[in-house]
Amino acid sequence: MTGFRVRAGFAAILVALGVSGPAAAQMDVASVAARVSGPWYGRIEAPDRPPRYLEILDVERDERGNYKTRVVFGWGDGTVSLTPADLTVVGTTVMLSLAPATGTKLRLDFASSTEGRGIYEAAAKPFRPIRVERLQDTTKHAALIGAWRATRGEETRLFEVKRVLATGSGSVLAVGQLGFAEKPAEMRQLVAFVRGEPGSAQLRWTTAMTAVDLRQTKANELSGLFRRTDGPPEKADKIVFRQAAK
């Protein structure tokens, strides 16, 4: 932890001096992008902190030579959102820092293209070590990709899976969006945790208002429980998502 803070402090000095360009490192934009771009799965060393999803998008350089990027960041089994982030290159290490509107802070060192290590701080919580590992597209649960719809009263809840990703250690995530078909402008980006075998997989996610646990009971059907989390405890409701024809 101390070593990371020393490196972070050194990086901050470089940024303050405007030296995150060639004088500070030999890596060009393409090399930095190859090192960090793409989706990552983060594990926080704390029993009360769920995993995190991080997707690093385009890497650019401003007029002063400083690296910039945008990331999608949030729960590893819930909602995620777009936020700006800063990149600093020190030698052959790429350092990422971001502070989403939720009040959390994340700083990561990427010394390789497969793993990043650093510290995570939730609002009003102590620093915690975090390790992220790269995610890759997987075909194991490719049948989940597509639009799933659940009708509740006069509303149609839409769960659309865009990609299914996996880590080398076996964690699987379904990445897409969630919302109501009647309100497309209010769709939220979502990551669902997947476990089990194809055809009977279990999916789980939590948002600020709901918690959902599903099981693939048929090739085109996900059945499970839907529970609200933004009020007094209440009985979980059954919910059934059916996959639209591809």
How would you describe this protein?
- The chain is mostly beta strands.
- It has two domains: 133 residues, Lipocalin (Beta Barrel), CATH 2.40.128; 107 residues, Lipocalin.
- It is 9% helix and 53% strand.
- The chain has an eight-stranded antiparallel β-barrel with strand order 1-2-3-4-5-6-7-8. An eight-stranded antiparallel barrel has the order 10-11-12-13-14-15-16-17.
- A hairpin with a 7-residue loop joins strand 12 and strand 13.
- It is globular and about 55 Å long.
- The N terminus is likely disordered.
Shape summary = globular
Distance between the termini: 49 Å
The CATH architecture name of the largest domain reads Beta Barrel
What class do helices, strands and sheet pairing give? mainly beta
The residue fraction in helices comes out at under 10%
Order of helix and strand elements from N to C terminus: HHEEEEEEEEEEEEEEEEE
Q: Largest beta sheet: what is the strand line-up?
A: 1-2-3-4-5-6-7-8
